[in-house]
Amino acid sequence: MVALAFLGGGAAAQSASDPRNDYDIRAQQLVASRVFKAAVASFERDFDRFVSDLIALTEIPAPPNGEEARAYAYLAFMVEAGLHRATVDDFGNAVAIWRGGRSAPLVAVGAHLNTVFPAGTNVKVKRDGTTLRAPGVGDNARGLAFLLAAVRAMRAADIHTATDILFIGTVGEEGTGDRRGMRYFFTDNEWRARVERFIAIDGSANDVIINGAEGSLRYRVTFKGAGKPSGGVSGHASPALARPMGKAITNLAKILGPLRPRVSYSVGALPDPTAANSNPFETTTEVELRSTSPEELKDADAQFQRIVREVVADENQAQAATGRSIRADVDLIESRSAGVTPADSPVLRQVAATMKQFGKVPVWGTGRTDANIPISLGVPAFAMATQSADHGGGAHSLDEWTDVEKKAAVKDFALALAILLTVVDHQ
Predict the structure, then answer these.
(1) Which regions of 89-136 does DSSP assign to beta strands (E)?
(2) Strands 208-213 and 215-225: what pairing?
(3) CA–CA distance from 164 to each of 59, 331, 425 (Å)?
(4) What confidence tens digit (pLDDT) does each residue in 187-241 have?
(5) Whole-number Å distance between alpha carbons of 271 and 287
(6) Environment class of residue 302 by beta-carbon count within 10 Å: exposed (0-12), middle (13-18) or buried (19+)?
(7) Where exactly does CATH 3.30.70.360 map onto the chain?
């Protein structure tokens, strides 16, 4: 393979006499290089393969906690593309290596395998001109297809990177998967000590860089008690009337609303499991707390727990004469870590410099992606998309769509590949 001129410290060597910084030089050298142009040209020539991969992956069902079929199919794609040590790990991630100049430290880049759609959803792709419609076609079958296309283009152009790149098709990114694939990967996996940076391919627009990991805690809160018979004596503890639940929600809003702008929350009531005229015995709600600040999220959690305890105590005190009482079961059903990769960090300064070569200024965003886990652990990480928001939409809906108009797709590919390669090179 041909080594890129911009790899291996070339930018640093020139920066002493060049008023521009290393990031700009590295990005300019890459975009102007013969091999980068050859990689983009290869993608353009092989564009039909990218589209066929996208369709094939979309049509392999990957419901929450049911990604196995797509993982093994993706593994076969990885092997065919020329990656090494391809395997499905203990948690179901499809993992493979691009061999660079050294094996550590390395950069990991991943796209999630699963969708939000339940088993049995019709995932057949419908094509209308350059528009493809199907659940999950953009989020995130397109990201998966991009990684395969990037590997093929890099091989065709004889690109040599400074270090290995770990490619991952991850499980558990959507819904209640709690990012179990990434959680395993960055806590209990052989690769953890070697991974220095992580890029998630996900999102809606390639000029938005998701560098903020929105953390969240989702609870199922169930108020339980003896209940109040329909038409019976008043004064009994009555969780079915949702008095304690309503009070808890009201108090939560007072504390987290205008006083805590860095914290948001949502509340959803679940159906009462009892019939209208039965003796109701419980009522349930789900509460989610969200923040990009771990400290704010921890404090909001403590206040939420206190509020629930207080409303139960108040209700039981008010109903003491009846001999009845209620309790609240607070069950954590999902936890997502919070944090930020600072915009002035070396990795994101390189991203900004690379985007400038394409006439773009990055918009820093916050979201919940596979990058959340490494960000929360202090590993420089971010998420980016492989297409413009103008050419795709309807994520998480049955009418999800992505545009495979060739000219726009080639531009999106070039930008995403440039970001990947300059971040890999940045040591």
Answers:
(1) 94-98, 106-112, 126-128, 131-133
(2) unpaired
(3) 31, 42, 10
(4) 867 778 889 999 999 977 888 999 998 888 989 998 887 645 444 444 444 554 5
(5) 15
(6) exposed
(7) 215-336
The span from the CA of 262 to the CA of 266, in Å, is 14
Nearest Cα to 138, choosing from 372, 382, 364, 398? 398
Tell me: the pLDDT tens digits for 251-276? Answer: 888 877 655 557 888 887 655 544 44
Query: What is the average pLDDT across 148-158?
Result: 98
| DSSP H helices in 104-141 | none
Residues constituting the chain: 427
**How confident is the model at residue 271, as a pLDDT?**
52
Name the CATH superfamily for 2-213+338-425: Zn peptidases (3.40.630.10)
Using DSSP, how many helices (H) and how many strands (E) does the chain show?
Answer: 12, 19
Whole-number pLDDT of residue 71: 98
Cβ atoms 263, 296 nearer than 8 A: yes
* Distance, CA of 285 to CA of 219 (rounded, Å): 8
215-336 in CATH: which number?
3.30.70.360
For residue 221, the SS3 value is strand
Q: How confident is the model at residue 356 (pLDDT cuts 50, 70, 90)?
A: very high
Q: Where in the chain is the domain with CATH 3.40.630.10?
A: 2-213+338-425
> Is the pTM for the entire model greater than 0.70?
yes
